[in-house]
Specification:
The radius of gyration is 29 Å and the shape is globular. The two termini are 53 Å apart. The longest helix is centred in the C-terminal third of the chain and has 34 residues. With 515 residues, the protein is an alpha+beta fold. The protein contains 15 helices and 13 strands. 43% of the residues are buried. A five-stranded mixed β-sheet has the order 5-6-2-1-8, covered by helices on one side. It has two domains: 157 residues, Immunoglobulin-like (Sandwich), CATH 2.60.40; 267 residues, no CATH class.
Length: 515
């Protein structure tokens, strides 16, 4: 059976990777991209505003127009006019320090194919403002549309050009650092010659989604429908395979899962429970965010959820790491006492017991053996599960596209099942990694020369969890707009954790001895 199963999955993965490229937006499914192309004429300033919405904001926008999530040609034209009327006031042009309102000349919208059969919206608005000829002018322009949204943002002044051909083709070389220019300063001579100040780029826009193309293959398969049972089975098997590949990418709490398992010296069964908890958190995040996008209909910015998740998860992980680090500091300090044991052979002997605030005792005997066996000590499920789940609760944008593609095709149950199979592949891979970590720690513990390293494994894992939490807090605070660098916030959080860990070690040790 195994001889048949392995090649079968290899063929599935090869089919997915070798198939036609997914039509997902190259900058990611959440992005809203916009460009202002400015041309100075003898008696006017022309501003051509171009908007390119990826799948997820398009889904939310179209459902506001029609509950079906589809737009007729007439609805699309009406939407273009409404959108132009709402956006143009946010395009701020000043001539010689005086506001110069832009007049809308034309607005036209169309849809383009996206991942999983979902459309993307593309809008072009042509505007102008009058300009007195035969005189020198100083122009200042600022694009205030969709402030804070992820995406490519650019302002270009003719005769200069930009690399995307009006947001229709995004060069692969620029996907990792998309443009984020929203203003321009322009000088106009009496003869009409144009000069521009160097463009100032703000913080980076949307990063490229590393797994977007491969993960969106699942939504493309889902879009083909359920007419063939064999194809449905293939789609679900591909979902499992892609979930496994997705689990091997950065993120998803693998680091937290591994160090939590080592710190708890968990069994293989407990590793499976933790991996399952992480997967449930990931799947629940996808479904909850999807429901919120549909129910609230544009009342919030979907990608704004991610910085809050990073910050709140970081606070939770940092707190858990601080508690665990404090307990391990207390457990490894030499609060030992000697007492006698009575044995059947009637000769008392003394040995030291180092009491551990985790509720366990490591017995050190003269004969050099230990009662602490890796893989058999009780697992503190609450903190360990929360730590593992906190690292992977952020919803996967590609899975959201799968959900929305299923809704657009009136096949919600099919989409949810596909996400569950995707999560199963994620869970199976994480479980395998967790078991490998646990077995590796047990193997190291059986080696006399490495036993001391394993003994301090819980202390090291607690420190790593605390560091990961500190980094997440730093990133989350900066993403929320705190005007301080992430390393400074991370360092301050780590110092606070160290201070907490060493605050009352004597009291904790006495409590442990009393227990």
């Amino acid at each position: 059976m195994r001889r048949l199963t392995t090649p079968f999955f290899v063929c599935i993965i090869a089919l997915v990777l070798a198939g036609r490229p997914a039509t997902a937006h190259p900058l990611g499914n959440f992005t809203i991209n916009h460009l202002s192309a400015i041309a100075v004429q003898p008696h006017a300033v022309d501003v051509r505003y171009v908007l390119d919405m990826a799948e997820i904001p398009t889904f939310a926008e179209m459902r506001q127009v029609d509950p079906s999530g589809r737009m007729s040609a007439g609805q699309l034209a009406q939407w273009a006019n409404r959108q132009a009327a709402a956006l143009v006031p946010e395009l701020n042009l000043r001539v010689d320090g005086v506001p110069a309102p832009l007049t809308i000349d034309a607005a036209k919208a169309k849809t383009r194919p996206g991942a999983g059969g979902l459309p993307t919206l593309y809008l072009v608005v042509q505007t102008h403002a009058p300009l007195a000829g035969g005189a020198r002018h100083a122009l200042a322009y600022e694009d205030g549309t969709y402030a804070g949204r992820l995406g490519w943002k650019d302002v270009v002044v003719a005769p200069a050009t930009e690399p995307t051909h009006e947001l229709t083709v995004y060069p692969n070389a620029l996907l990792g650092s998309p443009r984020n220019v929203t203003s321009a300063a322009i000088g106009v001579s009496a003869t009409g010659a144009v000069s521009t100040a160097p463009a100032v780029a703000q913080a980076a826009g949307a990063p490229a989604a590393s797994s977007a193309v491969r993960s969106n293959q699942l939504s493309d398969l889902l879009a083909k429908g359920t007419s063939s049972p064999a194809f449905v089975l293939l789609t679900l098997l591909v979902a499992v395979a892609l979930g496994a590949l997705h689990a091997l990418e950065p993120g998803h709490g693998k680091t937290l899962l591994a160090v939590s398992l080592v710190g708890a010296r968990a069994t293989a069964g407990q590793a499976a429970i933790l991996a399952g908890a992480l997967t449930v958190a990931h799947t629940a995040g996808v479904l909850l965010l999807g429901v919120a996008i549909i129910a609230l209909k544009g009342a919030f910015v979907p990608e704004a959820v991610y910085p809050w998740i990073t910050l709140l998860s970081g606070v939770a992980v940092a707190f858990i790491g601080a508690r665990a680090f404090s307990r391990q500091i207390s457990a490894n300090r030499p609060y030992a006492h000697a007492h006698a044991h009575g044995h059947a052979h009637a000769h008392p002997h003394e040995h030291e017991h180092v009491h551990n605030p985790l509720g366990e005792q490591d017995h050190a005997h003269d004969d050099g053996h230990s009662h602490a066996i890796p893989g058999n000590r009780p697992l503190r499920f609450g903190p360990t599960v929360v730590a593992a789940m906190s690292g992977g609760i952020a919803p996967c944008p590609a899975a959201l596209v799968v959900l929305f593609a299923a809704i657009a095709q009136n096949a919600l149950a099919y989409g949810v099942v596909a996400i569950v199979f995707f999560s199963f592949g994620l869970a199976a891979t994480l479980t395998g990694l967790g078991i490998a970590v646990v077995r590796g720690a047990s193997w190291l513990g059986a080696r006399p020369k490495l036993g001391r390293l394993v003994r301090y494994g819980p202390l090291v894992s607690a420190a790593i969890i605390a560091v990961v939490g500190s980094v997440m807090v730093g990133q989350g605070m900066v993403q929320q707009g705190l005007p301080v660098s992430a390393p400074i916030v991370t360092a301050l959080t780590a110092l606070a954790i160290v201070g907490y860990a060493f605050a009352h070690p004597l009291g904790r040790a006495r409590e442990a001895q009393a227990a």
